[in-house]
Design goal:
Largest sheet of chain B: 7 strands, mixed
Number of helices of chain B: 20
Structural class of chain A: alpha+beta
Order of helices and strands of chain A: EEHEEEHHHH
Oligomer: heterodimer
Strand content of chain B: 25-35%
Shape of chain B: globular
Helix content of chain B: 25-40%
Largest sheet of chain A: 5 strands, mixed
Number of domains of chain B: 3
Distance between the termini of chain B: 64 Å
CATH architecture of the largest domain in chain B: 2-Layer Sandwich
Radius of gyration of chain A: 16 Å
Low-confidence stretches of chain B: none
Structural class of chain B: alpha+beta
Distance between the termini of chain A: 52 Å
Number of strands of chain B: 28
CATH class of the largest domain in chain B: Alpha Beta
Number of domains of chain A: 2
CATH superfamily of the largest domain in chain A: Beta-grasp domain
Chain lengths: 162, 755
């Protein structure tokens, strides 16, 4: 079958690609475009390692077709840092040692970004339920939740002083 | 040198990990992240049957499909003779490993690899798999461990005769091995006992459930040189096993360690690498194999499920005088469950005069088990620590006090031989007793449980090199894959010895052709053993730097002192010179003898055993049987925490895995022996909303056999949770739940039955 032409925006850059109709957005990112930050942990939407934002919404890219990216704004983990500076979420993940193997980290960073864009002052329970779709097998989530709460505080301060 | 009582500047602090930025920005490269031009996609056909004779494999249609470049099955691999090797956390027989990588003659479990293809796209590879025509003769199967032990059970291996029984059996059996340990006189012990309790406990196999599925990329040059790019707990292990299974020389295989996305013991053996190499050899193109999550569940090893029988006898004052255990461990389709450590670890925590342990290693039609964090210990301790709780109740003694009374100490002789030395169990229990959690009033309706755990920890062979770069910055390379932040601890130990900030030292993992042999990352050995090698390499570099300074100053090396990253004249007699720092010495290196670096290989001995105590509060929803963990505290002797955050992380992560093991994780089989829940939706690992904050309390009883006092920390924390939770549930419901997982339907049924 002929490949489909797709024009989209990925991490702020206009991006064009060709993909098979059955290819998932995760496959497109990893195998067509070469953005391997999003990971495949399950390919069934259960682990969240492939999390991306599509027009701001948190999506498992393994559950989205590549052709569905047409005309959308896609953010992947590679687009989270602000130029040379880490995003506060990334910085707090490092400071709190909120990662061990780091495999779930890209998905978590994107999921936390989506959370804090919607609610910059989540309770611990809200953060835990928001992140219930992102499996981490290493950390027991303790340090991740601490990093999220701390990043939220930084983001609130940034907004207050802006 | 020994730094245990030194004034440390780097060790014990919490710098950012050297590989951190790569991992929060998506730049870190894991096993599936590498691709090369012209690469093919390899896929593996797996048996749909739990037990079947492979009558015929017809690959002609698959081979004829456009885009298919190679197909292989067992016929393409050498027949490997039986050869036992001990590798890290358990025994390994290379014949079994070869037959696990590609089924030969029989499929022994649903998910057993039967054949493989390499094609230009994943879709074509899938299509090709569907075109492979396998004729099976379906055989009766057995899943349950006790059913597999029955004389009438379907036999997996006609040549398996139970080891460890005298006389040698004349009939084959699914019982691969019987293990026995005895101390004192068990009958006299029970006769002497005033109170006896016993229980029968069962645990389910649980998967390590690392989030990164196994993946590898193999390339094969025309001269036979093979390069494998893969993540694992040991790239030297991949090299050795792949060479063995393909009949190659190790020097012809180079393994590049990709970042590893979790292992927990599950990546201490190989599944796909020889297959990728074979397909690359046959096709002449690079081949990548990437498992699906379903492949991981069906085709790779969980740890054993088991039946654990425990009987304890005590005096009225709480002195335990007799302890007996019978353990039946599922090994999966090939011998090699962690029955040995299972028989050792349960009673290793206590000073008991009379002990008797009997263990069985049993094969059944399930995936071959792999190591999982303190292999065997969580299973045996679930039984022992649950039974201890019942004993405490019967004696009317506080469960922590009962453990304190019977705790193993330095000089306690274990039932499996060694005498405990330099252990910190009593200190752990003292911290538990004084901890606010243990002393907090228990909210109404909740239950509180405590349980303890032990793991040996290991040392072994490691290599590290320390390089002073031309500008005076430092690189440390080791052969140990970094599974949870070990780069940070390597860099910190080196920085401490060199007297420079942690940020000056970059830590890397070198491939199999670039550093000396290093045993795999397992047994909680890396910070201990590889850390010892890195420390010694840094010390050699310091000696060399002192020589260089002495040369520049034209004095003797012993007249040079090294501190804070600089060479100083040692006292006024040595002369008056301005100190020389690393950058200056590096600049002058060419004129003083060339590059400054050192490589050290060790076979580290004296890994200090680890002990932990976990306290947990639960509430139980009596309508649904759902258990909420309200509060959780994990106390552990860690020797010395090099980077306390990552030590806490090990403890928190281990405890969370234990929570899953206790409450939700299990393999569900249908009557055909097929796994019904091979995905993260139905195989239920804890998610963020299932667990509370987990307070990790570090007790530091230094291990005198390590320069900084390190003992392994990664495995102990998965040992206590199951019993701690079951004991808390007993507190909340008055029900002893002896069967894992204590899932809502199971607990609800028990509550209903109790009325």
């Amino acid at each position: 079958m002929a490949k489909q032409y797709v024009s989209t925006t990925i991490n702020g850059e206009t991006t064009e690609f060709l993909c098979e109709t059955q290819q998932t957005m995760l496959d497109v990112l990893r195998d067509v475009i070469g953005l391997t930050g999003a990971k495949e942990g399950c390919a069934s939407g259960d682990c969240g390692a492939c999390s991306i934002q599509v027009d701001g919404r948190l999506v498992c890219s393994c559950l989205m077709l590549g052709v569905e990216a047409a005309g959308k704004e896609i953010i992947t983990v590679e687009g989270v840092a602000r130029g040379d500076h880490l995003h506060p979420i990334q910085q707090k993940f490092l400071e709190h040692a909120a990662l061990q193997c780091g495999f779930c980290t890209p998905g978590l960073i994107v999921a936390v970004k989506a959370l804090l864009e919607e609610n910059d002052n989540p309770t611990e329970t809200e953060a835990r339920y928001w992140l219930a779709g992102n499996l981490c097998r290493c950390t027991g989530y303790d340090k991740i939740i601490r990093a999220v709460m701390d990043a939220a505080a930084v983001i609130r301060e940034e907004k207050a002083s802006a | 040198m020994n730094y245990i009582d030194s004034n440390l500047k780097v060790v014990g602090t919490r710098p950012l990990r050297p590989d951190g930025v790569d991992k929060v920005t998506g730049r870190a490269m894991y096993s599936a992240d590498t691709r090369v031009a012209g690469m093919l996609w390899g896929k593996i056909l797996r048996s749909p049957h739990a037990h079947a004779r492979i009558v015929k494999i017809d690959t002609s249609k698959a081979e004829a499909l456009k885009g298919v470049y190679a197909v292989c099955s067992a016929a393409d691999f050498p027949d490997i003779p039986s050869e036992e090797a001990f590798v890290g956390e358990g025994p390994m027989n290379f014949r079994d490993l070869a037959m696990n990588v590609m089924a030969r003659g029989k499929a022994l479990y649903e998910g057993h690899a039967i054949a493989a293809v390499a094609a230009s796209t994943p879709a074509i590879a899938d299509e090709a798999l569907a075109l492979i025509d396998v004729t099976y003769e379906i055989l009766p199967h057995v899943i349950d461990v006790e059913a597999a032990m029955a004389e009438t059970a379907p036999l997996l291996h006609a040549d398996m005769f139970t080891q460890g029984v005298d006389p040698k059996p004349t009939k084959p059996s699914n019982i691969a091995k019987v293990v026995k340990f005895k101390k004192g006189d068990i009958d006299a012990g029970f006769k002497d006992a005033e109170v006896i309790v016993e229980g029968r406990y069962t645990t389910q196999p649980v998967h390590q459930a690392y989030i990164e599925p196994h993946a590898c990329l193999a390339t094969c040059a025309a001269d036979g040189q093979v390069t494998i790019h893969a993540s694992s707990q040991g790239h030297f292990m991949i090299r050795a096993y792949t060479a063995k299974l393909l009949g190659m020389e190790m020097a012809n295989i180079r393994v590049n360690p990709a970042e590893i996305g979790g292992g927990f013991g599950g990546k201490t053996l190989i599944y796909i690498e020889p297959v990728a190499v074979k397909l690359a050899q046959k096709s002449g193109k690079p081949v990548k194999i990437q498992m699906t999550r379903e492949d991981v569940f069906r085709g790779t090893g969980p740890t054993s499920g088991a039946v654990v029988e425990v009987k304890l006898g005590a005096k009225k004052d709480g002195t335990i005088v007799a302890a007996q255990q019978v353990l039946k461990f599922q090994a999966g389709a090939f011998a090699g469950s962690p029955i040995g450590p299972g028989c050792m670890c349960g009673f290793a925590l206590y000073d008991i005069e009379n002990i008797d342990v009997l263990g069985y290693d049993v094969v059944s039609n399930r995936p071959k088990v792999a190591a999982y964090r303190a292999p065997g210990a969580p299973i045996t301790s679930f039984g022992v620590e649950s039974c201890l709780d019942d004993l405490a109740l019967k004696l009317g003694i506080d469960p922590l006090t009962l453990r304190v009374k019977n705790a193993a100490k330095n000089g306690t002789k274990t039932h499996y031989g060694p005498t405990h030395a330099n252990i910190g169990f009593e200190q752990v229990l003292a911290v538990a007793a004084a901890h606010p959690h243990w002393n907090a009033p228990l909210p109404a309706g909740q239950g509180r449980g405590i349980a303890c755990g032990f793991w040996f920890n290991i040392g072994g062979e490691s290599t590290a090199t320390v390089h002073i770069n031309e500008d005076g910055s430092v690189t440390v390379a080791t052969g140990s894959p970094d599974i949870g932040g070990s780069r940070a601890s390597m860099g910190m130990m080196v920085a401490e010895v060199l007297g420079v900030p942690a940020e000056r030292v970059r830590a890397t993992i070198a491939d199999t052709a670039s550093i000396g042999f290093t045993h795999l990352t397992g047994g909680s050995r890396v910070t201990f053993a590889t850390g010892m090698a890195a420390t010694q390499a840094a010390e050699k570099v310091v000696d060399e730097l002192k020589k260089r300074a002495a040369m520049i100053w034209e004095i003797t090396p012993d007249a040079v002192e090294w501190r804070d990253g600089q060479a100083f004249p040692a006292g006024t007699n040595a002369g008056a010179f301005e100190p020389l720092d690393l950058a200056t010495l590096a600049l002058k290196a060419a004129r003083t003898g060339g590059p400054v670096n050192a490589e050290v290989s060790v076979n580290a001995q004296g890994a200090g055993a680890g002990f932990g105590a976990h306290i947990c509060d639960v509430s139980v929803d009596k309508e649904t049987g759902h258990v909420t963990i309200e509060r959780y505290t994990a106390i552990q002797d860690v020797g010395k925490a090099i980077h306390p955050s990552y030590v806490e992380g090990q403890i928190q992560g281990g405890a969370a895995q234990g929570i899953g093991w206790a409450l939700s994780e299990e393999y569900i089989y249908n009557d055909k022996g097929q796994m019904e829940n091979p995905g993260f939706l139905d195989y239920r690992c804890p998610v963020a909303s299932d667990v509370p904050m987990i307070e990790a309390v570090l007790v530091e009883v230094p291990n005198p056999r390590h320069p900084f006092g390190v003992r392994g920390v990664g495995e102990v924390p998965i040992v206590p949770p199951m019993a701690a939770i079951a004991n808390a549930i007993r507190g909340a419901t008055n029900l002893r739940m002896p069967n894992l997982p204590i899932s809502p339907p199971r607990l609800r049924a028990a509550i209903d039955q109790a009325g």
